[in-house]
Amino acid sequence: MINETTEADTQVVIAGAGPTGLMLAFELRLAGVEVLVLERLPEARTVESRAGGLHVRTMETLDQRGILEPFLEGGRRRPGVHFAGIPLDLSAVATRHPFLLVITQSEVERILAEHAAQSGAQIRRGAELASFTQDDSGVTVELTDGSRVRADYLVGCDGGRSTVRRVAHIGFPGTPATMTAMLGDVHLADPPAHDIFQERRAQGSFSVLSSGSGWHRVITNEFDHVADRGEPVTLEGLRAVMRKIAGTDYGMHTPRWLSRHGDAARQADRYRDGRVLLAGDAAHIHFPAGGQGLNTGVQDAVNLGWKLAAVVHGQAPHTLLDTYHSERHPVAARVLQNTRAQTALWRVDEQTSALRAMFTDLMGVDDVRQRLAGEITATDIKYPTDGAHDLLGRRMPDLDLEDGRVYGLLHRARAILLALVDLPGLEAAVAGWADRADLVRASPVERSGQGVDAVLLRPDGHVAWVAPAGEPPDLGLLRAALTKWLGPAGPRDVEA
Asked: Taking a C-beta distance cutoff of 8 angstroms, is the pair 77, 53 a contact?
């Protein structure tokens, strides 16, 4: 186990109770890790809608943990997504959830906070991290009220202006803002008959989207104008920009929430500094094109959670945490790239209009449409792995089994060795990891399309080993995969 010189108050401190921090807290608690979440806001957000949807892979991730249903109940389903406002069909994505779930970030946070608290996570609101120091045995976190907390690890989920990132001296390179977007959740005296999504006009573009609850989300995009960061965001300011672009403000009044952002795109140059890690907006920011930010952060948390738990429990070496950066940094880099492209395609000059027309035609090609759909929904992610089988590194499909389905096996956030046919030697091969992995023998309802007789699933549902159909399983490779992802077999102490 970890050799501590100072007794820790908790095992992991998470700075920030947004979707990323709350999902990480829940993941760690599933593995029995003591967690303290520090949130500077004194109360949970209730009217700041912020991000507005969950994509396919995020819904699958929540389904893997058995907590998707309340999100489905609290949201509205839309059949497709978009790329720079150009409709993008999801029918080719193999999933139980081929839609965008429209749900406000405040509702996502409420549900995740309930699950995190029920699982035993401590959430301390009105508590803001001021600084920290780390040593070989842990991290001492200093709060703005002068108090201190000692932990084994610290994870910064504290947003784009992350204090954790700044104190850790982690670089945040990228591109500066070139435009300004204003956003308001407002009531409209004279709303449009139908939703307007990214209508392009000579002075910019705008959207007017009904919430279904009596208010509308109004968004304006002004290109080649970067607002001063200190300039206040006001209803009159949003009205003026809306009239400038759309010719009307639809009689907007009584704002619930107003905000402004640009298209700056930046990414932490490393996600880990010793015992300090970054996730979510603390690790990457970008223009919210396609609604990928919240989703990328939640998926960061699920990738990190089981790895950090294994290290905290002394089951795996601290080097396992390096795979968090190597797997998730390229994913966010790709998000930054496609959001930059989408922002460029939203511009309103004649050259961009010609480019949009050509791009729209290209999106009619099946391969192009499938490529973009997989990228926006994060269902095409393939983490680096050893081996040539196409399923390795990818998310496991949620196959129907004779007694349940694959994602139902992942509710406890443990690794699963899933045998779809009767193969010899699996019990002996996995026995040394019985405290971290479960052997499940289950026949699929349909034996087609996968080309495997058995798979090792990491706790996040990605495939770490396969036994190709009709071939003797390579148990040596299975043990190597178990060791790589779960640590050495059998109980032992691992020096941190």
From this structure: no
Based on the domain organization, do 326 and 184 belong to the same domain?
A: no
Q: What is the CA radius of gyration of the chain?
A: 23
Compute how many other C-beta atoms are within 10 angstroms of the C-beta atom of residue 171. Answer: 11
Distance between first and last Cα of the chain: 8
What digits encode the pLDDT tens for the residues 102-127? 998 999 999 999 999 999 999 999 99
- What is the domain-level CATH number for residue 337? 3.50.50.60
Report pLDDT digits (tens) over 155-211.
999 999 999 999 999 999 999 999 999 999 999 999 999 999 889 999 999 999 988
- Residue pair 288/208 in contact (Cβ under 8 Å)? The answer is no
- For residues 300 and 58, is the Cβ–Cβ distance under 8 A? no
Question: What is the distance between the alpha carbons of residues 458 and 381, in angstroms, rounded to a whole number?
Answer: 14
Residue 494 lies in a domain: no
> What is the model's pTM?
0.94
Q: Are strands 404-405 and 400-401 parallel, antiparallel or unpaired?
A: antiparallel
| Same-domain status, 279 and 363 | yes
3 state DSSP class of 327: helix
